[in-house]
Design brief:
About 40% of the residues lie in helices and about 20% in strands. The chain is an alpha+beta fold. Helix 1 links the parallel strand 1 and strand 2.
């Protein structure tokens, strides 16, 4: 079982692409909307040093942006 979290905002097209990609691959994920959750946004910046979205945490590894190849390299 993969542990996948997508950090996104309402207005980010690449976030939608990442979620659609995960759906297409049949990979379950949870979504954290950092636009609505300021604490999560702050925690994300502290953990990754990045403001951009999507950021996807997969099995303890971070993938910045819509990067399917990197993402799949961390899939179990």
């Amino acid at each position: 079982m993969n542990d996948i979290t997508v950090y996104s905002t309402n207005t980010c097209p690449y976030c939608t692409m990442m979620k659609n990609f995960l759906d297409d691959k049949g990979l379950a994920y949870k979504e954290v909307n950092v636009q609505l959750d300021q604490q999560a946004a702050q925690k994300l910046v502290e953990e990754t040093g990045q403001m951009g979205v999507p950021q996807t945490k997969i099995n303890g590894n971070w993938v910045l942006g819509f990067d399917p190849e990197s993402l799949l390299s961390f899939v179990k």
